[in-house]
């Protein structure tokens, strides 16, 4: 059994159906096709540990105003400045309270949270490994 970091959030997400997908040592939380959160607690790059919130375009400032514990995503930014993510750092004194509030917003279908990832393109012949 895999230990999910910050698994207390699922108590607050009970009103909606969720699924978790493990990828690259992180746990992606979806509802239907919408990516909502990423849970990360790894040894490498500890500044990136915490609860990542998938933010819809234009939702950054209002969410940061409502929840001061939210931080800009510490990873690379898009050319437009908004990268689509906010972070509740694992080291935040306000992690649990902020996470619970985010879960409340999610269960009330707040349009600022969540995004539908672009569809994966099908593999083509050039993507297939070659025999040498």
Give your account of this protein's structure.
- The chain has 132 residues and is α+β, with helices and mostly antiparallel strands.
- The protein has one domain (9-118).
- Helix content is 18%, strand content 23%.
- It has a 6-stranded antiparallel β-sheet, with helices on one face.
- The radius of gyration is 16 Å and the shape is globular.
- It starts with 8 loop residues before the first helix and ends in a 25-residue tail after the last helix.
Characteristics of this structure?
132 residues; 6-stranded antiparallel β-sheet; globular; 3 helices; alpha+beta
State the gist of this model:
The chain is α+β, with helices and mostly antiparallel strands and 132 residues long.
Order of helices and strands: HEEEEHEEH
Molecular shape: globular
- How many strands, what sense, and barrel or not for the largest sheet? 6 strands, antiparallel
Percentage of residues in strands? 15-25%
> What low-confidence regions span 5 or more consecutive residues with pLDDT below 50?
none
- Mean pLDDT rating: 89
Q: Which structural class do the helices and strands define?
A: alpha+beta
N-end to C-end Cα span? 39 Å
Supply the number of structural domains: 1
Query: Fraction of residues in helices?
Result: 10-25%
**Order of strands across the main sheet:** 1-2-3-4-6-5
């Amino acid at each position: 059994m895999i230990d999910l970091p910050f698994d207390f959030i699922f108590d607050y997400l009970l009103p909606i159906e969720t699924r978790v997908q493990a990828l690259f040592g992180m746990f992606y939380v979806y509802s239907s096709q919408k990516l909502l959160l990423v849970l990360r607690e790894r040894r490498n790059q500890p500044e990136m540990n915490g609860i990542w919130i998938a933010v819809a375009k234009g939702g950054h400032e209002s969410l940061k105003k409502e929840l001061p514990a939210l931080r800009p995503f510490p990873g690379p930014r898009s050319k437009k400045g908004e990268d689509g993510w906010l972070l509740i750092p694992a080291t935040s004194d306000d992690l649990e309270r902020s996470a619970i509030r985010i879960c409340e917003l999610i269960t009330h279908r707040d349009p600022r949270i969540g995004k539908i990832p672009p569809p994966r393109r099908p593999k083509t012949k050039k993507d297939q490994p070659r025999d040498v």
